[in-house]
Design a protein that fits this description.
By secondary structure, this protein is mostly helical. The chain is built from one helix and no strands. About 0% of the residues are buried.
Length: about 100
């Protein structure tokens, strides 16, 4: 017959085999979930890239428009200041002439 030591060894081998099979199945399922998660993340990043590209063009146009308005307003302000500074000289010259 089977000795008690052989019986214990056989029982340990069977239990370990069953546990390793269960562990292998769990690892397989985890890797499958990781693959699905990476796939979804890739789709999200692709969508984010498309959205940023669609937003980039209007923002650059608005930026160019703002720079143009800023430049034209600076020129207008400079002309206004120049006209203010030149008027007192004209008024003083007129007073001195009289």
């Amino acid at each position: 017959m089977i000795d008690p030591v052989q019986l214990v060894l056989l029982l340990v081998i069977v239990v370990l085999t069953v546990l390793l099979i269960i562990l292998g199945i769990q690892v397989f399922l985890i890797l499958k979930e990781v693959r699905n998660t990476i796939s979804k993340t890739n789709k999200v990043l692709d969508n984010a890239s498309a959205i940023t590209e669609n937003i980039e063009a209007p923002l650059s146009a608005i930026s160019s428009l703002a720079l143009g308005v800023k430049a034209s307003s600076l020129i207008t302000i400079a002309k206004f200041v120049k006209s203010l500074l030149s008027k007192p000289k004209d008024d003083e010259d007129r007073k001195h002439r009289e």
